[in-house]
Every structure is written in structure tokens, then in C-alpha cells.
Specification:
By secondary structure, the chain is mainly alpha-helical. It has 15 helices and 3 strands.
């Protein structure tokens, strides 16, 4: 059991966290530059955005391999594995949803190409990295053996797993898109609460959202008229993440002052994970705030978001920037982004937390962050 926990921590916390950093340094930053280009039309910003997004798979490969403690040749080879697995997937039939072609890279019009994306890269890079490390520095011709083994294993893993991953992500995205289209109130609550909780847990909400709300997922949703539903779900996810970060920053102000506002409101609510383990009641207020703000996003303000931005919250203001990029321009858009990113999470979290304090469930000192 101890060994299982060790590997679960290694792959689904450390490796996934590293994947999020790789996404942040490529796709997410590219999205930010792309948004700035939209409003400034400064061509250099568009060039940076284009190449940053193109490097997504490579950034994921290097980030995961580095975090797993791989040797240099394995890390460099995993850049190619990441690019390969991020791009591979399958052509899925428009009707029936069956896989028409395995590990395809383009469509011939008979179906829709769905790349495995970051999810595929996550699994393929881990396998290639671990196998590559078994031979790394074991022979006198390491400069040839290690890259060859890592790349071949990476290709086999990508070819075998990426279509399966893309198939799963295809139906997950389709379910969320359809469910949000027909039940925006319920899905607004569920997605906002779940993604907010994931953000605070030592799991990468950014990585998960990059898989669920990918460009391919949006393309598939557009075919059956549920693209807006998927984007609304992404908006609810972003709002739920904002509620956790802003919520904890506000309700822990007694203990952490302005430093806590910055570290949690612009950094991460994960800093409260130790306190949550000691006293889970402190988590109730931000979760309830997410439950209130999520449906306000899907039903009233119609906030939209996509990709990795949906899982970032107010970290570096990436979530709000993603909302700005995805939501059609209107007065309600700007009011909604301000209200649901900062104002409402702060107010609702404060109100719920004060109720919990009067009930004796939460006390001053419960949310103190160690310096």
C-alpha cells in the first residue's frame, strides 16, 4: 500500500503538477499573448502566441521528465515524445462516435480528428521517461541508446494510448457540453464546486481543464450545437476556481493579513491544504461560494472560458484573462467577470464563514499559513 501511494503521488501529483507548469509556460502564456494581440493588433504578440502554443507538447514533455528526476538525454528526448503524443489521437465518426482511424494526424472528411492533447502527453511521457531511465548511463554509447529507447518507447506508448485517451476525452467533453446546454443551473453548480475543490487539492486543475475544454473538444461541440454549453461549463470552472482563491484570501485575512491576500488571491489556495486536513470545516465557505457563483455564471452572466485558463482561477489573473478571451463582448461580460472573479466570491465566502464562526465551527487561527 505504501508503494502504491508513492507512485500515485509521483505521477498524479508531482508529474501532473509539472505538466501544469509546462502548460503555463507554453499554451497558457500563448493564450495571454494572443488575447493582448486581439486588443492591440501588435503583430509581435501574435508571433509569440503562435510559437508558444506550438511548443505545448514539448514543454509538457520536458516539465514531466525534469520533475521525475530524469537524466539530461532522457529529458531532451521527452521533448519530442511530448510533441508526438500531444498531437496524436484518432479520427472519430461524426455519427455514432466510433474510432475510424487509430493514431491519425489528419482527417479525410469522414470524421473529426480528436487529439489526445495534454492527457495523451501525460501518459506517454511518463512511460517513455521511466523506460528511458532504465537504460540511461548504462552503456558506453549512451548518447545513442538513451534517445533511441526513449523515442521508440514514446512512439509505441503514444500510438497505443493516445487514441484511447482521445476517445475518453471526446465523450467526457461531449457529456459536459450537452449536460450544460440542457441543465446550465445544475451543471453550473457541479462544475464550479468540483473544479474549485480540485484547484485547492494538490492536483492540477489547470491540466484537467486543458484536457476537457481543449480546442478539439470545442470543435466537436460545434458540430452538434453544444459549443456554447461547453464554453459556459469552462466559465463555471474558472469561476469556481476564483471562489476558492479569493474566498480563502478574504476569510483568512484575520490570520494572514495582506500577505495572505496576495499569496492566496494571486497565488494558490493550495496553501490552505494543511489547515484543511486539520479542520475541514474551513473549506465549507469557499465551496458554498462556488455553488452560488457557478450558476450565476452559466445562467445570468453567461461567462465563457476554455482550455487551461478555466482551471487557473485568479492565479496571475489568468482565469479572468481567459474569460475575457472567450466571452463575447458585452456590458454583462465585463460586469460578470469583475463580479464573479472577485466581488461575489469575496462577499459570499465572508458571509458563509461568519455564519460558521457564530456556529463555533471556525475559529481565528484555523487558517494561519506558515510563513
Amino acid at each position: 500500500m505504501k508503494t502504491v501511494k508513492k507512485y500515485l503521488h509521483r505521477y498524479f501529483i508531482e508529474a501532473m503538477g509539472a505538466m501544469a507548469l509546462g502548460l503555463f509556460a507554453s499554451l497558457l502564456i500563448g493564450t495571454i499573448f494572443g488575447t493582448l494581440y486581439t486588443y492591440t493588433e501588435f503583430e509581435a504578440l501574435n508571433t509569440i502566441a503562435t510559437y508558444a502554443k506550438m511548443a505545448t507538447g514539448m514543454a509538457i514533455g520536458v516539465a514531466i521528465a525534469y520533475k521525475l528526476g530524469a537524466h539530461p538525454l532522457v529529458i531532451f528526448s521527452c521533448a519530442a515524445v511530448g510533441a508526438m503524443s500531444n498531437a496524436m489521437g484518432a479520427i472519430i465518426a461524426k455519427e455514432g462516435g466510433s474510432i475510424l482511424k487509430w493514431a491519425a494526424t489528419a482527417t479525410d472528411g469522414s470524421g473529426v480528428f480528436y487529439a489526445a492533447g495534454p492527457a495523451g502527453a501525460f501518459f506517454a511521457v511518463i512511460i517513455a521517461c521511466e523506460i528511458g531511465m532504465l537504460v540511461s548511463k548504462k552503456t558506453k554509447i549512451d548518447i545513442l541508446v538513451t534517445p533511441v529507447v526513449t523515442l521508440v518507447v514514446g512512439f509505441i506508448a503514444s500510438f497505443a494510448l493516445c487514441p484511447i485517451v482521445s476517445y475518453v476525452m471526446y465523450y467526457l467533453g461531449k457529456f459536459i457540453a450537452v449536460a450544460t446546454t440542457f441543465q446550465p443551473l445544475l451543471m453550473g453548480i457541479v462544475i464550479s464546486v468540483v473544479m474549485g475543490i480540485i484547484l485547492t487539492l494538490p492536483i492540477s486543475s489547470a491540466a484537467i481543464c486543458s484536457m476537457i475544454f481543449s480546442a478539439d473538444a470545442l470543435a466537436v461541440a460545434a458540430l452538434d450545437g453544444t459549443k456554447e454549453g461547453l464554453l459556459l461549463a469552462g466559465g463555471a470552472a474558472a469561476v469556481g476556481c476564483c471562489c476558492q482563491m479569493v474566498g480563502f484570501a478574504v476569510i483568512s485575512f484575520r490570520e494572514n493579513k495582506w500577505g495572505g491576500i496576495v499569496s492566496q488571491g494571486l497565488g494558490t489556495s493550495m496553501l490552505q491544504m494543511g489547515n484543511i486536513c486539520k479542520k475541514p470545516q474551513i473549506w465549507i465557505a469557499p465551496i458554498l461560494a462556488s455553488a452560488v457563483c457557478g450558476p450565476l455564471s452559466t445562467m445570468l452572466f453567461k461567462i465563457q472560458c476554455s482550455g487551461v485558463s478555466a482551471g487557473m482561477g485568479t492565479c496571475g489573473l489568468v482565469g479572468p484573462i481567459g474569460m475575457i478571451s472567450s466571452t463575447p463582448d458585452s456590458v454583462m461580460k465585463w460586469v460578470g467577470i469583475v463580479v464573479l472573479s472577485v466581488v461575489a466570491p469575496a462577499i459570499f465566502s465572508f458571509i458563509f464563514n461568519e455564519i460558521l464562526r457564530k456556529m463555533g465551527w471556525v475559529k481565528t487561527g484555523d487558517m494561519k499559513i506558515d510563513a
